[in-house]
Amino acid sequence: MTTDAQLARLAPTSDDPAQGGDPTATYDLSTEDGRIQQLNTWYTISESAQAQWERQAREDLSFYLGRQWDAKDLQTLDQENRPALTFNYLLGMVNLVSGLQRQNRQDWKAYPQKDGTRQVAEVLTALLKHIKHTSQGDWHEAMAFVYGCVTGKAFLSARVDYDRDPTTGELVYEWFSPFRVKHDPFHDAYDLNDGDYVFKDRWLPRGRIERMFPDAKERLAGVHLTNADMVKQGVETTGYTQEPAPVSHSRMDIARLRLRVREGEWKDYETQRFLLNVESGKMVRLDMGRARAKALIQNRPAFKYFERTRPRFHHSVWVGNVELFHEIDHYPGQTRFTTVPFFAYWIEGESFGLITHAKDPQREANKRKSQALHHLNQSANSGWVYEEGSVTNEDDLEEFGSKPGLHIKYRQGRPKPERLHPSPISEGHLTLGEMGYNEIKRITGVNADLLGVTGPQGQAESQSGIAMLRRQQQGAVVLESVFDNFRFTKLTLGQVLLELIQKSGAYSNQEVLTLLVDGEVQQVPINVRQQSLAMASERVLNDLSLGSYGVTIDMQTSTPTTRMANFEQLIGAVKAGVPIPPEAILAASDIPDKEQIIESIQAQQAQARADQQAELAAKTAPKTTNGAPATGGPAARH
Question: Quick one: which of 14, 337, 49 has its CA closest to 199?
Fold first, then answer.
């Protein structure tokens, strides 16, 4: 965690707006220059504060990708013609934990809080599921999870996308690499909401920036950039390099580069005035001065006036010393950052992933196995010992001495040539190689239960799905903190999406939405005005702007592990005598063509009911004098 004493070290003092200024200075945030100075200062502080984490995280990512040898060690081994093997155990370990998350996905469920209704909560739940579907949310969540497990943190960010709907837009969310996000290092809350800013950056060519922000085209002509804000990349330059480009004020040179565009949300604070109706509990915000507000409630005991200092959110986009976009209350009434972090392990502001503490045993395993192969290679051609002049074909012995079928001639009366036998590799050396793999399992918590191994010798035994699920859940206790952190990330993201549904304007129109919920298309009316004849007044059906709502997490019933557990529970209930319809059991199974089987069963049941009703009608019909059923009315019986 960053302390105040480190502030001066984190942010160098500079008068250059593109670099930021004195971290203790106060800037006029109502002006563009003041905002740019403040934003660049914050960015420099955050970048410096997470430099140590970034070095560690990039090394962790390299290990996950299989780049596990130090460059100097590789050069030395290459010069000595020795192998450098990589047995990437960490890849499988992380992918297994990622697979557990993918097979046990979770859904949001909204519930009413103050002034909320159950009906609107159900609509909000349907909207959350629809947003997840249109955003490809399962994939983005999985990417954030695996990146967090590897590097220690990742981010999910919600926004209103206007590409497909330029009028009201549509809500989406996506994952972001942690190397692209800079946040306030002085935060204490997991969700960052007690900090002052969260920034994201991306590299864009200048032409695209001008097309995205045409109003800033003239100001971009005088943009001042530091080395870190320009990079040569790809076909835009004759030479490809990831190193920062040299500073150049040539417009032609800058046009050939990609520029770092920074975007983010930040807070300032303002005093807000409110009027509370004590009898009804309703509260309204006042846009007037204190004296006028107090005069308004004189001799009105039913009203109470109070003030609160609350954060006000700003949305800014800038490059170097040029502000491309700035807006206050981009989402009116916003109370949370729309970018949500996932920390695999997070203690006292420090974050790390599953790989961080498993790199040493991975290095040990690689080195021991490489040494064992080198020893084997040396043993294949260890050499011969013979008396000088005793062998007649020394050249053949030297060239083909390690190959089978070699015939050696030695002179009569001379000692026979003997092969040199190197000392065998020690058992301790082999044991150390295996210990590296076992230590990785102990450190990461990925044990035999998670691997699905249940037999005494390591072989997988056949068992029920629910039993396998319970063993895996027991084995995942070591990793529970990781999954619990991701659950909190999902809850926070759900709260952000709920706030944007109510306040962003994406769902403010009177309309009937076509939503895809759990694989089914639903028609959901929102904000629809209806005339009430009984009350002689107008009411709004499913008004999303009223009331407050919370979010909880439900396990998705579509995941394989959950389906298997549900199916086994239904079978167990049937064996215990619970009268469960067969179509319900089939619906919970993974049997192919189960829909057709269920329809066939339902058709047979309908036919059986029809036959029973016909038989019952025949038995209860009135009889004639000769015993035949009566076929006519009163006239037929005379």
Answer: 337
